[in-house]
Amino acid sequence: GAYVLNEATNLIAKWAHDAVKKEWRISVNISPKQFRDENFVDNIKNLIISKNIDSKKLRVELTEGVLIDNQQSAMQKIDELNRFGVSISIDDFGTGYSSLGYLKHLNIDELKIDQSFVLGLSENSSDKTIIKTIITMGEEFGFEVIAEGVETKEQFEELKNLGCNYFQGYLFAKPCPENEL
Asked: Is 18:55 a contact under the CB 8 Å cutoff?
């Protein structure tokens, strides 16, 4: 986890001088163990300060499970990161069994619709209903909502019709080396 955060912040610093990439933000998945570390927030702050990068270019992605473990501590860390300019995403949203009540207390920026719902979109009306509900809920809270695992034009069109504005998946690009971005 520390290595990935270091590499991500190195790229943000490098891209600050690129005409196109300077506008990009990097999202980093954070493991529950990494997030529970008492120095987690300070480590991120130190990386940003030491590399003199724009904190708004870094987004940390947390799963719902991280929030369930210790809600009070999680909310404090999220608030501190947010005050520092780092944005927060809830990854794989809808797959956890937590109460939705925590959403109204979290200072987050994004919900990511889990790809399992996207994969079943055309065959399963329940998946469509869940996606539509997440999009509507995200809009009401002022969150960006991104659909993960978009692999076909049909999925993309259906998600757009449901009101989704942000997408991630093989339809757009597969993982590749930095120089191919």
From this structure: no
Chain centroid to Cα 181, Å, comes to 19
CA–CA separation, 49 vs 43, rounded Å?
A: 10
pLDDT per residue as tens digits for the range 25-73? 999 999 989 999 999 999 999 999 999 999 999 999 998 877 776 778 8
> In Å, how far from its chain's centre is CA 153?
22
State mean pLDDT over 5-16: 97
40-47, Cβ contacts within 8 angstroms, sequence gap of 24 or more = 40/77, 41/77, 41/80, 41/81, 41/84, 43/2, 43/5, 44/5, 44/81, 44/84, 44/86, 45/84, 47/5, 47/6, 47/9
Q: Tell me, what DSSP letter sits at residue 160?
A: H
Q: Spell out the long-range contacts of 152-155 with Cβ–Cβ below 8 A and sequence spacing 24 or more.
A: 154/122, 155/118, 155/121, 155/122
- Judged against a pLDDT cut of 80, whether residue 74 lies above it is answered with yes
Q: Residue 122: its pLDDT value, please? A: 84
Give the distance, in angstroms, between the CA of residue 78 and the centroid of all CA atoms in the same chain: 13
